[in-house]
Amino acid sequence: MALLRSGLQRVANIFGGTQGGILSRFVTSLVPSENKSVAETSKEVIATCNKLIEQNASRNFAIVHILGKQWRVTDGDLLVVEGYWPPNIGDQITLDKVLVAATKDFSLIGRPLVQPGLVTVTATIISKGLSHTRTHFKKKRRKQFMRINFQRAQQTILRINSVEIGNKINEGRNDV
Amino acid sequence: MSAAKRVQQWATFARSWHIFDCKWQDPYESAHVIKKYLMGMHKPIYHPMNDCGDVVVCINSREIALRGDEWRKRAYFHHTGYPGGASWTLAWELHNKDPTMIIKKAVYRAMTGNLQRRHTMQRLFIYPGENVPEDVLQNVTNQIRQIRYVPKRLDHIPEEEVKNYPKVMEYPEDFVVK
Amino acid sequence: MVFLSVINWARCRGPDEFWRKRRVFRLAAHYIGRRRNCYSIAVRNVHRALVYATKARKLKKEDMKSLWDVRITAACEQHNITLFSLREGLDRANIMLDRKSLSDLASWEPKTFEALAAVAKYKLETDRFIDGQDKCHPTGINLNLKDVMLEAWLNEKKK
């Protein structure tokens, strides 16, 4: 199957370029793009993407932003998030800060976030606990200086239940 | 692991062979390029502990070019370990003794000194001329781009072409070319 | 007034010698030779190991950063863009991926990375941004250096 990459219609929209610079790069053999304007090419790309989403052809992954770190997640992943985080064990949460979502055939790149509602990443909190003890030990030679401290960080373990892309790439893009 | 995945794994970590033409290249600059391919730093899967480096074949190492008067100034140090065993060899002397040595030492120095370095060096083949054994050459799949453009020498251009080349002016007859 | 307790504290020399030493020996349990059996040697080595462990937590983060940079550079080279201009282009296009996720994409999702590289390149082109960093690799036939320089020069003159 020909790989079809849309660097996302949004990019083309915002740049407002006159050539099909980005889009035509990714459309390899599915769409002969050279003699088409941007609008048509991007429309076709979006249509193909939507069709692919409907078919649910392959498994999706997304890059989500949790507590200051970015994680590449896919269905069934386990994440260990470190630091204070309010959710409790058993909570079902949706991770909203999705930076990139993609499948085998196309990728949606958010600037900086993919539009809300397009991609839903759901996760369950499995356990909350503390990390192993980290010894913070300082010593200066010949100066009779020695300090020892122990610290443990809070850890939350997440299970990613699903990464789903809603079938509506073409809609509601003004809130980007 | 399914069969297809296994093949993918093999293909990912397979070694590929690169060829590098040292003609008119600065060995110390090109060492950094060669090092990158030897250690596998040109692959996004690079990790110092995974064995993803490639093989590099250097040809024409006799024709390397050193900057300025480095041929005369650069000295290579060696110590036998016995008292008074120090010796300094100038670059041109070393190059006369072994035309592959300068490029080899340059690549060796470009890498960080860890245990892996000697094994990585074994993947580097250097040949003074263009004669590469057939069994080495048949593996080569890629050519590393030279860092510097190799200029064409005037005495290598056919004489007719030089004569027919358009001129701005002729030298006057009493002009002495220095 | 008699400060009995404080005086007692001052005289108190911590836990019994056996337990004090045992704490160190526990940490030296996996060492070899006298390092694990003689207290005076063991305590030196344990202290050194703990100092290293403390410092290494920071070093590990730096190492990972440089490793990610190497990986991203390698992936960038395949698409003929430098690491600097990739990050600059992504920043300007308001795509906020960090090193970790970029290198992750580079090795596991090369097609997505390619799209990102193309976006960065296109964004820089539309911004008329010229990568001042020396590409040092191709001094080639295809690199149309003269045109590029002329454009930069013209832009400067206009200002």
Automatic annotation (TrEMBL), chain A:
Keywords, alphabetical: Ribonucleoprotein, Ribosomal protein
The keyword Metal-binding belongs to this UniProt entry's keyword annotation: no
Protein transport listed as a keyword: no
GO cellular component: mitochondrial large ribosomal subunit
Pfam family, one: Ribosomal_L21p
Any one Gene Ontology molecular-function term assigned to this protein's record: structural constituent of ribosome
PANTHER family, per database record: 50S RIBOSOMAL PROTEIN L21 (PTHR21349), LARGE RIBOSOMAL SUBUNIT PROTEIN BL21M (PTHR21349:SF0)
Family per similarity comment: Belongs to the bacterial ribosomal protein bL21 family.
The name this protein goes by in its record: Large ribosomal subunit protein bL21m
Organism: Bombyx mandarina (Wild silk moth)
TrEMBL record, chain B:
Keywords annotated in UniProt: Ribonucleoprotein, Ribosomal protein
Membrane-spanning intervals of the chain: none
Alphabetized Pfam families for the sequence: Ribosomal_L13 (PF00572)
InterPro entries: Ribosomal_uL13 (IPR005822), Ribosomal_uL13_bac-type (IPR005823), Ribosomal_uL13_sf (IPR036899)
GO MF: mRNA binding; structural constituent of ribosome
GO cellular component: mitochondrial large ribosomal subunit
CDD domains for the chain: Ribosomal_L13
GO terms, biological process: negative regulation of translation; translation
Family (UniProt): Belongs to the universal ribosomal protein uL13 family.
NCBIfam families linked: rplM_bact
Name of the protein in its database record: 39S ribosomal protein L13, mitochondrial
Species this chain originates from: Bombyx mori (Silk moth)
Taxonomic classification: Eukaryota, Metazoa, Ecdysozoa, Arthropoda, Hexapoda
TrEMBL record, chain C:
GO cellular component: ribonucleoprotein complex; ribosome
Domain of life: Eukaryota
Gene3D superfamilies in the cross-refs: 6.10.160.10, Ribosomal protein L20
Keyword line: Ribonucleoprotein, Ribosomal protein
UniProt GO molecular function: rRNA binding; structural constituent of ribosome
One example of a Gene Ontology biological process annotation: translation
NCBIfam families for the chain: rplT_bact
Family: Belongs to the bacterial ribosomal protein bL20 family.
Name of the molecule in the record: Large ribosomal subunit protein bL20m
Lineage: Eukaryota, Metazoa, Ecdysozoa, Arthropoda, Hexapoda
